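User: Is it possible to get a 3D structure for a protein together with its bound compound? The compound here is NAP. I've pasted both below.
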Amino acid sequence: MTRVAEPPPTLAVLLAHPAGHSLSPVMHDAAFAATGIAGRYEAWDVAPAALVAALRRLRDSRTLLGANVTVPHKEAVVPHLDALTPEAERLGAVNTIVRHDDRLLGHNTDAIGLAAALAGLARPPGPGRAVVLGAGGAARAAVAVLLRAGCSVRVHNRTHARAEALATDMRRLGAVAAIGSEALPAAIAEADWLVNTTSVGMRGGPAGSPAPDGVLPTSGTVVDLVYRPRPTPLLAAAAAAGLETQDGVAMLVHQGAASFTAWTGRQAPLAAMIGALERSLSDATA
Ligand code: NAP
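Assistant: Yes, that's possible. Here is the predicted structure of the complex:
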């Protein structure tokens, strides 16, 4: 009897540090299963000193489709890739790597994912005032999305110089300025959209709320890119104040869907991905 060799499983990985909190494996394994692709997604905990070795492993592999990249590597991977998509180039950050033979192409699906998520709000961003907390890779995507929607954006970050650099890089897209701690409470109070892109409040990350104590928009919408715990401390306070809120799950799904398509060329099975995430999040131990 002739045995037909099974094709090797294809693999996508997450490069993160820490990596244990991620729901991407649950979401992408569901996507592989729903599309009938013999694939699997693994989270690799890659410390900064091990990043170059992890990228070499990705480049040399024949079964790895590519990777997602998150905290703290989104900007650090850029110089090690062979090419960037125009969006990754514009944002100066990569959240998705696609392997083409031994070449690594950097994509950024965070902005497209956040734009799709925000489109689901009762009051999607448009001309008005937005405040972004944080100035890392996710903040770059958030500022781009808000500027493209016509908002004027103020960016606050623990490390002010990083907020200044982000504002300088993004100014060609619209009205954006970095603000310090003194100006932050008033800016938040009058904001139409407040978007947290810091890791403050994330399970396993810095505890608490990224906004100053008791300070919320008077009547705006509050978005937190963090998706675990549910709700985050910021969103719990915003909901208690009667404000519209959105957590990071919708963005996670949409940026993940765009990554899945970049790796496989297939349309992502959104319903299967959302179902897997919701089941995992509703698990009391999740
Ligand atoms: P990153 O590039 O490492 O940036 C981290 C940001 O958090 C920086 O602005 C940093 O400020 C700030 N921060 C960290 N610890 C802090 C603390 N103790 N107090 C105040 N600020 C602090 O990370 P990233 O890729 O932008 O991701 C940031 C967050 O967004 C993470 O929680 C990530 O899970 C989430 N995210 C979610 C999605 C989604 O699909 N839902 C997508 C992307 C990211 P400094 O500059 O001062 O260090």
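Residues 70-72, 74, 110, 113, 134-139, 157-159, 162, 197-200, 202, 206, 225-227, 248, 251-252, 255 surround NAP (CB under 6 Å). The chain has two domains: 11-108+250-285, 112-247.
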